[in-house]
Every structure is written in C-alpha cells, then in structure tokens.
Amino acid sequence: MTEIKKIGVFTSGGDAPGMNAAIRAVARTAYGHKLECVGIYNGYEGMMEGKFETNLRGKIANIMQRGGTILKTARSKEFMDPEGRAKAYEQLKNRNIDALVAIGGNGTYTGAMKLGQEHGIPIIGLPGTIDNDLYGTDYTIGFDTSINTAIDAIDKIRDTADSHSRLFFVEVMGRHAGYIALHTAIGSGAYSVFLPETDTHIPNWVSALNKKRKKLFNIVIVAEGNKNGNANDIAQKVKDSGFERDVRVTVIGHLQRGGSPTCQDRVLASRLGYQAVNCLLQGDQGVALGIVNDKLQKTPFNDAIYKTKELNTDLLDMIELLSL
Ligand code: F6P
Questions:
Q1: Rounded-to-integer distance, Cα 244 and Cα 47, Å
Q2: Per the domain annotation, does 324 fall within a domain?
Q3: pLDDT more than 90, % of the chain
Q4: Same domain, 78 and 163
Q5: Most buried of 11, 166, 167, 316 (most Cβ within 10 A)?
Q6: Which residues are catalytic, by number?
Q7: In terms of domains, do 43 and 182 share one?
C-alpha cells in the first residue's frame, strides 16, 4: 500500500446542494492530517484535461452555505472509454495525486470504479445527488434541500390553486427514482403522486377523484420519469378521461438543484467528507460512503451502482388517507 500524501477531490454529474460542504470537509480533514488536497475542476472532463486547483485552501472559506459546486461539474462521454480514463490517470500521476474523493451519483461511481480497477488508484465515493437513489445510504447529499425547495414552491402554488379551485400537477425531478416525488407529496399534503416505480391507470384514477369532487384536492405530484409521461401529458390524459375541474401544470425543474443547503445536508456532507479522508488513510478504497441508521456505511462501488435502494411504496396508502 503506497502512503497517501496528496488527495484529489472532484464533483461530477448533476450538482447538488451540499457538495461545497463536502469539498470543504475533505480538504480541511486532509490539511488536518498534514496532507495536500487538490481540487479537480469539471469532474472527469477536467481530470482528463489537467484542470487542477492547487490553491484549494484559499477557495474553501465561506462555501458551506453556497449551493452548486465551486469545482464545477460535468458529465463526460470520453471518460466512459478506457482511453479517456488512461488520459485522466496520466494527469493525476503527473501531479502526484495518489488518492481521490469522488462526489456524485451513479455515473460518478461507475467512472470511479473503473478508474480504480484499471489504474489501482484508491478512490472513495460520496453520494452527491438530489435524487436520493443510491444504495448504501439513507440519504444523499442534496436530497433534503431539494425536497424543501419543492415544498416551499408547492405551498405557494397551493394558495392560488385553492383560490381558483384548480387541480395542479406539479412535476419534480427524478428520472429513475421517486424519492423526491414521494417525500414532496407527503410534505406538501398532496392528494396523489405519480412515481417511476408504480403504474397508475388514469381513467380509474380520474373516476375515483370525480367521486370525491366535493372535497377540494389541489395538488398532485408527478415524478419526471414516471410511466404515464410528464406532468403536461398526464394533465392532458386526465382532462381526456373526463376530469371535471380546471387543471394547471407547474414544472419545478432545476429550481430544485440550487439554493443554500439545509442544515441536514451540510451535516451529512461534513460527516461524509471527513470520513472519506479517514477511510483513505485506513487503507479503504473502491467504496462509497453513506450513513445508515446514523452510522457510517462502506459499500463497494459495484453494489452502490447496481443494487437498488427500494422506495417505500407503502407510504402511498398513507398519502391518500391523509389527504381525505
Ligand atoms: O440526477 C440529478 C438530476 O437532477 C435528475 O433528477 C434529473 O433528471 C437530471 O439530473 C437532470 O439533468 P440535467 O441537469 O442534465 O438536465
């Protein structure tokens, strides 16, 4: 095992609030252990191009509260090929970077696993995505902020929905997983939620809702990746199936990816960033870190990438009952 002296840290894939808190924790823990820490700009793109921040120490003050990522981020096609990864590794070698902390989602972990397997560099992954869809952690960095942002917007939509007695279909992010939609639905007191994990028969759904029309149901949450299409498609299908009230659509979109991270995301990011450096120093590599039941969990990249964190769809019954 080679002694670790210089750690590289980067963010990759979709940004998430709390990534800056994670960068800060990685860098400050490294400095605390008298290690060097280098920032890598633009994820794997910047790694291949040698875009390194050697003065990271001077960049990490006052970033805890900022959304986005000071190291920027990107999704790289070139890095998916072994040639791209070899190019990146050459850059790391030239700078004497002997370990990495990769902050991102599934695609980030996949790149990290391959880079580690092909070139032997120790890498620790941290779950940075608003989607909360990574196996091996109860929550991902950015999820809590994103659902709070969504709820804040929906509280406002509810005011106008209520005034006009309209039903709003509110689309939230989550191409493959319904965590954002499910939690947003519960937290906003929505009538119903359309998820990627479930199938909703729209004519039946409409006839059930028409029977309840004396009640005022205002909000339905739609996950962008669900089987019935996006919120506009669903609103149209609902109208075509004979829904009797006025309908509107709001797409929250990238609003959910920005903003100052909540305290929960800052704490999660700080704990994981701190542990990433400790784990590297203890000889761990090729694992993603998470917090499960308030305890640190190390999950091999292969499991973190390919195992599915099951959504608790039992909560759907609760949503319907609580909205009556
Ligand atoms: O993975 C995070 C995420 O925000 C998804 O929820 C969303 O589907 C996707 O990224 C959007 O990606 P982009 O910013 O490239 O449009």
A1: 55
A2: no
A3: 88
A4: no
A5: 11
A6: 131
A7: no
